[in-house]
Amino acid sequence: MEERLHKILARSGYGSRRQCEKFILDGRVRVDQEVIRKLGTKVDPDQAKIYFEGRLIRSEPKVYYLINKPKGYLCTSSDPDGRRRVIDLFKEKTARLYTVGRLDIESSGLLIVTNDGALCNILTHPRYQVTKTYWVMVKGALSSEAISRIQKGIWLAEGKTKPLRLKIIKKTQQRTTVQIMLREGMNREVRRIFARIGHPVKELKRIKLGPIRLGMLKAGQYRRLSKYEVQKIRGSIPH
After folding, report:
1. Is 182 exposed, middle or buried (0-12, 13-18, 19+ CB in 10 A)?
2. Residue 81 appears among annotated catalytic residues
């Protein structure tokens, strides 16, 4: 994932962002074989070799976490309104962290949090078609017709949703609980689909992302992914 060069330098301990901007203007920073003098230049620190005065800047070690996101937290790096963020739940911030994909503030469940831009890309880019599985409770009893419409695709502002898999878990006159599997998704797609057919979502929880399951983590708890789990994610992506 690309970042501004002066931010990478500052995070690596070479000075404040303002100082690092001056280093760039002075021609003291090289990316691969090119001296960079332009402010605002973006670089992928996972792909490029960055040098300061001829010394290679070592990239920070990669970390991978699985967290059960609670409701009321944002999947963002910063919020001007000072609302709670998922990354605020992490006690040991030894590296920059960002969430892989998003869950809206009222949703909960599985998130992967990492500083590995390459892994983030393969889990979120539409071309890789990573399956996401959700537990969803909606208002009212879903009819066979409503289920058929969802499975075939619903028209939203951006276009028609892709066909998805839906399994009824429990149904009463007051509410229906389903499991949904989808791949490429629009913004807040699940909530918008059910709202369109008159069954607003009451609860939404992601329980699986690719081959990784949420497991028994309580809301707000997190753990490191094992090397095997990271390899399993990479191995599940078609090349």
Report:
1. buried
2. no
